[in-house]
Amino acid sequence: MAGTRATEDLRLVQISKEFETFTAVQPMDLTVPGGSFFALLGPSGCGKTTTLRMVAGLEAPTTGRIHIGAKDITATKAYQRNVNTVFQSYALFPHMTVLENVAFGLKRKGDSAAMTKARQTLDLVQLEQVATKKPAQLSGGMQQRVALARAIVNRPDVLLLDEPLGALDLKLRRQMQIELKRIQSEVGITFIHVTHDQEEAMTMADTIAVMNKGRIEQLGDPATLYEKPASTFVANFLGQSNLLRAQITGAAVDGVMPASTHDHDVWVAADRVPDGLRDVWIGVRPEKLRLGDAGRNQIKGQVTDASFTGVATQYLVAMPWGFELMVVQQNDGSPRAGVGENVTLSWDPGHEFVLDQSQAEDAGSGLVDG
Amino acid sequence: MAWFRKHLLTFAAMVTMTILLLPNVVVAIYSFNKPNGRFNVELVRFSLDAWKHPCGTSGICDSLSLSLKIGLTASLVATILGTMIAFALGRHRFRGRSATNLLIFMPMATPEVVMGSSLLALFLNIGMSTGSLAILIAHIMFCLSFVVVAVKARVATLDPRLEEAAADLGSRPLTTFFRVTLPLVAPGIAAGALLAFSLSFDDYIITNFNASPNSITFPMYVWGAAQRGTPVQINVIGTIMFVVSVAFVLGGQLVSARRARAAS
């Protein structure tokens, strides 16, 4: 029966959470499409975990409603919701075996096939051989998979993952990212993944909501967020950005607009410039900047640092006005520059993004033009 | 020399155990004695008389049964109340929480003589007669502190996420308490209950202040008997108590060892 049921959308309507001393989540709307892998990404304290806990029913929202499909679940208790959580600390029951842990939820519902289903789910996460062990006897990665099995065995409408990979080492984390993605597509449940790791969010999620200070800054698929960040915060939080202070100096000609940054004339793609904006940040990702004059927009500078990372070389290039740009050049055989060398940096219009200059330039902390 | 160094710890442990257990062994040996006269201080002749008639001396088994009754009731009540108090102190923030913490600690810090006499003064002032009930109330009062301390320590180590996880998995609050919370706190509760029982069973000073001629507990009986001579039955009951306690501890060890083995 679980397999045939269509997964339904989760909708948060004007939901907010205020604690005694601060507001964790500002009123916000959010729709998570059924069956998708959704990530809530943000720095610690941005309200992502609080949002998750409200969906789980572990925290009551101050305002707003929570819907799953047509059902309003705002007033229901955690134990009445068909929503399950994988906790950051796993929160496995230490006095029960792995199998008992996994069967716990089904038994509460009086499912007579609880043990069989629990075994099948342990099979899915490849842990059938440790069914009779206690959680404390397992490694961190195994405990993580038990926590996952314990949640998905219940076939919840929505599965919540609260920084589930935070306690694992890098290699295991990469493995589990792939594993989680596989399991999600196998069971078809809506996954909401809370994380502060932008790489993890981009690797796994279909859609990412970037949160900051209790608000959603931007919502979109990973590529859109990276290529067209809507705010300096998103630009700096997802990957590295060079933000240049600039003015739009004219009207669009053949799809590009003239702009000036520190007396250098550059061209930006007209469709990237919000209407009527004059004072802007021009953002260029380090890998979009090239050493040499192959691109239409060109700036001269001096290399102050070069670090070889294997697949690429990372340069810091000082501009005449003091600001340092980060450039990442693939080691594709193109000539390398040394420290102290004068170089020309270039990029083509359309490889940049344009943001309103009234935004704080250092939101999310990145490289900032003085 | 190397051999000696290697076994030094074993040797030290054996000496310590011997010193600790010797009195119990002496008590056990003298329980098989048939003394001349009223004082059981000299080994005279082997006899099973006392073991065959443990209640052979007047009043001894009455006092034992009274001590057991008071001990069991006091530890039961103290354990139930103490567990609830421990949860309240460990889990909730409320007005008067630190005051409660302090008051709970007081009976452990107060000298028994002071507490016994104060309680007597209190009972007399409110017009309550001394006797079994007064003793029971006094015992519940001082046992409570120890139960609270034992359970609170366990509650403090309990991850609140576990209860959240249970609720998240569809477990109602009452089910969560019995399936998750209680099993995890149980060792603390058991330790508190055992401690309470042995404290109550053992208490002489506070009990003596609040006793009446009709409520002679076992420690009071032994103390009283010692003035006039020590019946061998005291050794018999003492030995039984010792063996029962050791059996309890060994049983507990065995259960946890088996659990650990089953789990691995």
Secondary-structure topology with pairs:
The complex is a heterodimer of chains A (370) and B (264).
Chain A: E1 10-18, E2 23-32, E3 37-41, H1 48-56, E4 63-68, E5 71-72, E6 83-86, H2 98-108, H3 114-124, H4 140-152, E7 158-162, H5 170-187, E8 190-195, H6 198-204, E9 207-212, E10 215-220, H7 222-227, H8 232-237, E11 242-248, E12 256-261, E13 264-269, E14 279-284, E15 290-291, E16 297-308, E17 312-318, E18 324-330, E19 342-347, E20 352-356, E21 367-368
Chain B: H1 2-6, H2 8-30, H3 49-52, H4 60-91, H5 97-109, H6 112-125, H7 132-157, H8 160-168, H9 173-202, H10 205-210, H11 218-228, H12 232-263
Helix pairs in contact in B: 2-12, 4-7, 4-9, 4-11, 5-7, 7-9, 8-9
Task: List the main descriptive attributes of the protein structure presented here.
heterodimer; A: alpha+beta; six-stranded mixed sheet; 8 helices; 22% helix; elongated; B: 264 residues; mainly alpha; MetI-like fold; 78% helix
Overview of the structural elements:
- The complex is a heterodimer of chains A (370) and B (264).
- With 370 residues, chain A is of the alpha+beta class.
- Chain A has helices at 48-56, 98-108, 114-124, 140-152, 170-187, 198-204, 222-227, 232-237; strands at residues 10-18, 23-32, 37-41, 63-68, 71-72, 83-86, 158-162, 190-195, 207-212, 215-220, 242-248, 256-261, 264-269, 279-284, 290-291, 297-308, 312-318, 324-330, 342-347, 352-356, 367-368.
- Chain A folds into 2 domains: 10-227, 3-Layer(aba) Sandwich (Rossmann fold); 238-368, OB fold (Dihydrolipoamide Acetyltransferase, E2P) (Beta Barrel).
- In chain A, the strands form 4 sheets. Chain A has a 6-stranded mixed sheet, sandwiched between helices. In chain A, strands 11, 12, 13, 14, 20 and 21 form a 6-stranded mixed sheet that branches. Chain A has a 5-stranded antiparallel sheet with strand order 15-19-16-17-18, with no helix packed on it.
- Chain A is elongated and about 75 Å long.
- In chain A, 44% of the residues are buried.
- Chain B is an all-alpha fold.
- Chain B has a domain at 59-218: Orthogonal Bundle (MetI-like fold), CATH 1.10.3720.
- The longest helix of chain B is centred in the first third of the chain and has 32 residues, at 60-91.
- Chain B is globular.
- The mean pLDDT of chain B is 89.
- Classes of the chains: A alpha+beta (370), B mainly alpha (264).
